Amino acid sequence: MPSMKAAIIGFGTVGEGVYKIVNEKKEQLKKQTGYTIEIAAVLVKDVTKKRDLSPDIVVTDAFEDILNTPDIDIIFEAIVGEEPAYTYLSQAIEKGIHIITANKKMFAKHGPALLKHAEFRNVHVGYEATVAGGVPIIRTVENLLAGDRIKRIQGIVNGTSNFILTDMRKEGVSFKTALQDAKARGFAEADPTDDVSGGDAFYKLMILSSLAFGNQPEWKKVSVVGIDHIQADDIVEATNADFRYRHVADIRKNEDGSITGKVGPVLLEPDHPLYNIDGVDNAVIIETEYLGALTLIGPGAGMYPTGSAMVADLLHIIRQQATELILN
Ligand SMILES: NC(=O)c1ccc[n+]([C@@H]2O[C@H](COP(=O)([O-])OP(=O)(O)OC[C@H]3O[C@@H](n4cnc5c(N)ncnc54)[C@H](OP(=O)(O)O)[C@@H]3O)[C@@H](O)[C@H]2O)c1
């Protein structure tokens, strides 16, 4: 049975999720792909931290060790921020290694360049996990683009914000208390700035814009508002009038070809598809020319949903390679 050698960059929530799924589903993956998937090396910041990893796996804090591991076919990237992730992935592509990333902050800015570079080097890029975690939004948009035209995408793409707004409404608590609750339950980072300020949703929106429309609006022209200014009284007032606050990322292509995006809290009426999306779930509405509107709902984050999106990318890449072999 042929094998595929992989490395994982970043062994936190997401990287460990990938590792666990690849191990737990080893036999299934073998049956589905015809390959044994072997995790050969892991890159972390702190090599002294204790990790639940097989002893034959190289654990390093030097990316050269990953690149120098013989015959690496694929890299799963799950570190945080633009750099050094972009540099590492560029180097991997240059070496002919397929890449799969969950890093939306990096991919919003550098995704178009990485995709172009990958095409030139004849390797594949998976980025399903960058938007809405376990919700297969990227693959769905790709499929729709084959025979349709996307007009607009809007959605709740930040589970932390949605949890906080839900908690404020259901429990009648302040933003601060709801944020503490989100942290206590593991739904918010120690530093939740990107989540509650709208930054995280903005990065995801830009990734969707590139995919759906082949371009992004000028970043400074996109209004980005978070939920941190919403008061408990605002929520009560909205609820009494049968409205709900949702934090919505919204991108559309206008008739003149321009792209307009915005991110922020909006008041929705009960017949809106996002009105009933509570808690940490994400939901994305895709509006197309032929299909009308399609709504996808599911977990937007977490070890297994995100890890499984990355493993699904791996399967997709293996299938793409098989098709290319037949065609060439
Ligand atoms: N968490 C989610 O549910 C989720 C969902 C979708 C997408 N994402 C994205 O996935 C990525 C990872 O998120 P996470 O929640 O797994 O983060 P995390 O738990 O903080 O883990 C980050 C990992 O990356 C390693 N790391 C950070 N900087 C590094 C560097 N410069 N060189 C080498 N290793 C480095 C850390 O090493 P140490 O262990 O040594 O500190 C850690 O293992 C982020 O880009 C995030 O936006 C996360």
TrEMBL record:
**Key word Oxidoreductase present:** yes
Q: Which InterPro entries match?
A: Asp/hSer_DH_NAD-bd (IPR005106), HDH_cat (IPR001342), HDH_CS (IPR019811), HDH_short (IPR022697), NAD(P)-bd_dom_sf (IPR036291)
Q: Which UniProt keywords apply?
A: Amino-acid biosynthesis, Methionine biosynthesis, NADP, Oxidoreductase, Threonine biosynthesis
Occurrences of domain Homoserine dehydrogenase catalytic (ranges): 136-315
Q: Where is the Aspartate/homoserine dehydrogenase NAD-binding domain?
A: 10-128
Catalytic reactions of this protein: L-homoserine + NADP(+) = L-aspartate 4-semialdehyde + NADPH + H(+)
In terms of superkingdom, the source organism counts as: Bacteria
Pfam families attached to this UniProt entry: Homoserine_dh (PF00742), NAD_binding_3 (PF03447)
User: Annotated pathway, please?
Assistant: Amino-acid biosynthesis; L-threonine biosynthesis; L-threonine from L-aspartate: step 3/5; Amino-acid biosynthesis; L-methionine biosynthesis via de novo pathway; L-homoserine from L-aspartate: step 3/3
Give the top-level enzyme category.
oxidoreductase
Q: Which GO terms describe its molecular function?
A: homoserine dehydrogenase activity
Enzyme Commission code(s) on record? 1.1.1.3
Query: Which family is this protein grouped under?
Result: Belongs to the homoserine dehydrogenase family.
The name this protein goes by in its record: Homoserine dehydrogenase
Q: What is this organism's lineage?
A: Bacteria, Bacillati, Bacillota, Bacilli, Bacillales
